[in-house]
């Protein structure tokens, strides 16, 4: 009898969230709504209870082989709310940066490049969290029978490319987000559902705006 694999570790996603918080703190206050510590503080207040509850949810799933529905009803909206707040903060900062550029910002080219890179990396991390949270209901529900994938990974669609029972984990979704932001299109992993296609389209558009408009203006200033 094949042993049931342990649920996916939640730490890679937690590290990604903490990285986003750190990147937010590096932004100047001209690119944040209020003090640059305010949103990271609010996001940390959401992350701490979410980490504790998700940890309990993972242990319950590992011990009993099924999800704790009561915990799921709390952690699911909390996780989506935190990801949405991270995304909203990044979009707000990008909008403020574009507004500064259109208004003739006096920032140096190096400062603009640093801000653009900060927002681009944050964009990748935030969308990796969206993909990780939404695909088949999230990390702790992804192995349930009868769930349909939002993304088609090559390992899941072709025998012999991965061990039996292979499943995508956070790093796989980080790769999807990075390649989509860099190439402005899917690479080896295809979106299957309309929400996955909408998210990838929005991410590519945001990345294109950051790279083409902001970075190109910064390069011109450096000349």
UniProtKB/TrEMBL annotation:
Domain of life: Bacteria
Record keywords, A-Z: Membrane, Transmembrane, Transmembrane helix
Sequence intervals crossing the membrane: 12-31, 77-99, 111-132
UniProt name for this protein: DUF1345 domain-containing protein
Organism name: Deinococcus aerius
